[in-house]
Every structure is written in structure tokens, then in C-alpha cells.
Amino acid sequence: MINLASQIHPVLCRELGGILILGVIKLALKVKFYSLFRINLKSAGTEYELDNQITIAELIKKLDQDYDGYFTQKLLEEDRSISSGAIILLNGKNVIHLDKLETVVSNQDTVTLFPPSAGG
Amino acid sequence: MRDYLKRQQKLFSKKQQQRLEELKVMVAGTGGLGTNQALQLQRIGIDKIYLYDYDRVEISNLNRQLCYGKKDLGRLKVEAAAEFLREFDLETEIIAKNEKITLETGVPGDIDIIFDGMDNFESRFILDQLALENELPFIHAGIEEFFAQIMLVLPESKLRLKDVFAGSEKKETPAVFSPAVTVTASLQVLEALKYLLQFDQYLKEQLLHIDLLSNQMETIDLK
Questions:
Q1: Which of B14, B157, B159, B180 could form an SS bridge with B163, CB 3.0 to 4.6 Å?
Q2: Range of the domain at A109
Q3: Nearest residue of A to residue B188 by CA position?
Q4: Contact A92 B205 (CB under 8 A)
Q5: Between chains, do B144 and A117 touch, taking CB under 8 Å as contact?
Q6: Residues A61-79 pLDDT 10s
Q7: Looking at CA atoms only, how far is residue A37 from chain B in angstroms?
Q8: For residue A16, is it within any domain?
Q9: How far apart are CA A75 and CA A100, in angstroms?
Q10: Residues of B in contact with A120 (CB under 8 A)
Q11: ipTM of predicted assembly, 2 dp
Q12: Number of Cβ pairs < 8 A linking chain A and chain B
């Protein structure tokens, strides 16, 4: 193992005294909060290691469990459509242009949530 | 170089300074963002500013729209703003256009960029469409309370404003006040300049999110 490690990254191996430390890359869905969401929740976001892909609607339920129902209130209208006071981006794309609340997300995706600033 | 620009000489190459002094822009909306943009653009010595608005000055404008005072109440915004800016007697040409921006608006043929000075997303989507049809760069900003976002949309951009902000059209009147509006408009001018003067770093397929309450600025990748 030490010889193999030296071949892979001799400098790093010397620094670590010849011991190779193997890290596990965690696959997870990243959810980022901005603006008032971040301030209200005192959190910049969260991560979920998913067994299977889920929809945005299911993600909101998961978030609600962790943040005391906050996201249904902020992201959805009473008729369960996406609120005009919230942007939901999946890897930078507004889910309104995808499958809205039925848009599927999985590990390695990034969901960005923020209230848009409309004034001027 | 214009004599009053000496203190910014070291910031730019000769080519950049020359380009700066040749820039012509459209400020679409002379409200909070637009009046602040115009003040900054005039101070840095660009060639020409077209001011677009169709409204008159109201009392509720005076908490953030820096070209107007109580004496201007009831006046056409573009006329009052143009008069205010011209009184500084700097070289930038100020052109007042008392027009509502629609999909039929004829954008001036000599401009380099369109500045978003609107206060709602319906108007911004129209402006973005005009920018696309005229193959012009468009710099968006929106401000609400202590939060803002800025996005540079280029003729070749894959994502237009609507791709990111669809669904944001209907909202009650946002809370806005002068310090946050001024910071946002200044950043909007800076970001536009970084692109127009060909600095290496500008907003490429990114949204700049500004949180003035927590002093955080972050870019959100849009690709």
C-alpha cells in the first residue's frame, strides 16, 4: 500500500509519513439557502444522501421536517403551486422550466432556494 | 483623457480609458437603481446616457431616487433627472426619453449596453427581450430590503432573465431604501464595466447574490 501510494502522490505520501489515507467521496444532494431564508434559518444549506431520486415536492417535505414547516410556507402558494416569492433552481435552472414540483433531483445535484429581489 | 478623471487613471489601461470615454448606455427606468446608475456613469466619464422613463416624480420616490427633490414633485422623471445631471457640467451627454418601454421600443442604435433600472419583473422581461432582439448586453439588478441580485445577460448567453426568474412577476410593492439601492446600482455599474472594458473576471453565466445584512456576496452558477 505504501509503495502504491508513493507512486500515486510521492510528495503527499512523504508529508503523511508514508501512510496513505483513503477518503470516501460522499455523494449527496446539496440544498443552498440564500437571502432571508439563510437569515431566518441561521443556515446556509443542507445535504441529503439519497437512496433514490426524489421530486422537488418530496424535497420540500424533507426540508419541512428539518426546518419546522418553513419551506412549504415560503416556497408554495395555498394551491400548492410555486410561490412568486421564491426561486427554486436545480443546477442553476429554474424548475418552472423543467417539471416544476415534479422535477426529479438526485445525489450530486444542487438545489438553490432564494426569494428574488424585485425592487429598484 | 478628460481632466476631471485623473484620479481614476491608474485603474485602467489607456485602451480601457479610451473605451470608457466612448461608452454609450441606455438606463431603462430612472427610479432608485436608474438614478444611481446615471450618477455613477456620469462620474466615471462615459460618452452618453439615454434616460428612459414615462413616470412623474412622486413623494414615495424621494427616499432613494437621488436625482429628485420635493421641488420636482409632479415633473417628468427623465426631464428632472437630465436637468439634475447636466447641472454638474461634466462632459457626458444626457438624453431624456419620456417613453414607456415596450416590445415595440426603438432602442438607440449607438448603445453598448442596457442597464436594468426597473422595479418589477414584467418590465424586466420586456427589457431582456429588447436586448436579445438588438443583440445587446443587458445587466439586470433587483433589490429588496437588504438583499439584491445582479445578472449579466449577453447576446450569446444561453440563459435569459426569464430562465432564472420566471414566476417572480406578481408581488406586492417591495421595501427599498437608499443605502441598499445605491450599493446595488454601484455594483451593477462595476459589473457592466468589468465586461465592457474586458477585465478577465466578470459575471459569466452566474448570478451575483448580495446580502447586505450579513455582508455576504456570493456567485450562484447558472450552468
A1: B159
A2: 29-114
A3: A120
A4: yes
A5: yes
A6: 999 999 999 999 999 999 9
A7: 11
A8: no
A9: 12
A10: 29, 31-34, 116-120, 141-143, 176, 181
A11: 0.92
A12: 103
